[in-house]
Write a structure and sequence with these properties.
This protein is mainly beta and 236 residues long. It has no helices and 14 strands.
Length: 236
């Protein structure tokens, strides 16, 4: 869906806007592999866990990127809570580590991110998310701040449309749009567009009992195609 996610409930989107965790009422686990430009050295492997706790949920996520000469690890602990029937909020503490096989120093960074989910109408959802609100003057290494705002509309029982805008320190405004269509029961088609590198996306999803399988593809105007696949398991 063009990476549109901060207003749409789901397993992976809950780690992009932690307020969405509040709507995850089942114990869930997921794994994902992202093969950037089909180059194995640029692959990202991710695992996540969501644990419901009343009107809130806890989330744990870990990912690693790279190969033996450059390696990046990310870990996060998050919580989302329903403040009312129409408003949810969430927060996540993040740890980043980068290391190389050369003489460069290892970088370790701790930061946070937070988000809101607002449901003004039954078929309308609004997401607001900020990553790294901590001033860089408080740390040795620079880490950009990102603010995202988006809205999603469920047009009918089988069609969902959404758009979001993102501003990152030092970069231009990025706009994303996406659609999700349930072709038949539990089989989903997704498409989207992102202004960053003029990227078009396409994906499919299938839900079978407690399992959900997703595949996605994103184009790059110069570097080719990025593919990803994930498997999610829920305990009802």
């Amino acid at each position: 869906m063009g990476s549109v996610c901060i207003m749409k409930t789901g397993f992976w989107s809950s780690f992009q806007n932690q307020a969405l965790l509040a709507s995850n009422n089942y114990f869930s686990a997921g794994i994902n592999y992202n093969n950037r430009f089909n180059i194995c050295e640029l692959g990202t492997r991710t695992a996540g866990l969501i644990i419901p706790a009343g009107n809130s949920s806890l989330g744990i996520i870990y990912s690693n990127f790279g190969y033996k000469h450059f390696h990046r690890e990310t870990a996060g602990l998050s919580c989302g809570i329903a403040l009312s029937e129409k408003i949810s909020a969430g927060v996540q503490i993040d740890y980043f580590s980068e290391k190389t096989s050369l003489e460069y120093e290892r970088r370790d960074i701790i930061t946070c991110q937070t988000g809101l989910l607002i449901l003004p109408k039954e078929n309308l959802s609004i997401g607001i998310h900020i990553f790294n609100p901590v001033p860089n003057s408080l740390r040795k290494s620079f880490l950009p701040t990102t603010l995202s705002v988006g809205a999603g509309l469920k047009l009918n029982k089988v069609l969902f449309a959404a758009a979001e805008a993102e501003m990152t320190t030092g970069n231009n405004l990025v706009v994303r749009t996406g659609l999700e269509y349930e072709v038949v029961n539990r089989f989903l088609l997704r498409c989207g567009f992102c202004t960053d590198n003029t990227s078009f996306t396409f994906g499919i999803g299938y839900i079978l009992n407690r399992f959900q399988f997703d595949m996605g593809f994103a184009t790059h105007e110069k570097l080719g195609i990025t593919s990803s696949a994930s498997l999610i398991f829920k305990i009802h």
